[in-house]
Amino acid sequence: MNPVIQVTALRKTYGSGDTEVHALRGVDLAVWPGEYLAIMGASGSGKSTLLNVLGCLDVPTSGTYKLDGIDVGDLNERQLSLVRNRKIGFVFQSYNLVPRTSALSNVELPLIYSGLRRKERRKRALAALEMVGLLERAGHKPNQLSGGQQQRVALARALVTGPAMVLADEPTGNLDSESTAEVLGVFDRLNRAGRTIVMITHEDNVAAHAARMVRVMDGQIVEDTAQWRMSGALTS
Q: Domain tally for the chain?
């Protein structure tokens, strides 16, 4: 079994000379199929840069990144776009739903350019909405849904292509405690069903839902609970 994510000696530098910023400083990270990982870090830690690289939204200055066995560095822009669409399901803090479009149509969006017939697109979108417990809200527009329901629609949209990984960026950042619990409950169920989830968060109570936590500081991984568990297993 190969990792979904394999990052080796990853570096990212912005600017040059006096304005040079080392956002990532030799990051090594492996995420295995079915893992639930929380990435934490303060503002400016490199967490957002790592997110952008993992999501194929930015390219590293050096190092390698393999996503589901594919070396991302070997891909052109068109191929990267296909990888983002098929291999990664994105969930953002701000939902990013189309306002005047139903939940069902929002979930269908990633499938429009895949060549699927409308009937098949609709079938998959309805199945994704059922996964997040919103099948009965398929015809509702975003302004008819609560914040938690909107985020669950966004999660259904992320799942509809059957991605190798769901990448969630502060998915509960705009939600109240009740909606946060609803959304995290969906993530928990999805992970128990075998989905790989990588979640960026700054909230300890959100990170506690993940089985593994990685902390980033000054562009480096300074804590990885998977290593703690491995060390404990070796010494017990």
A: 1
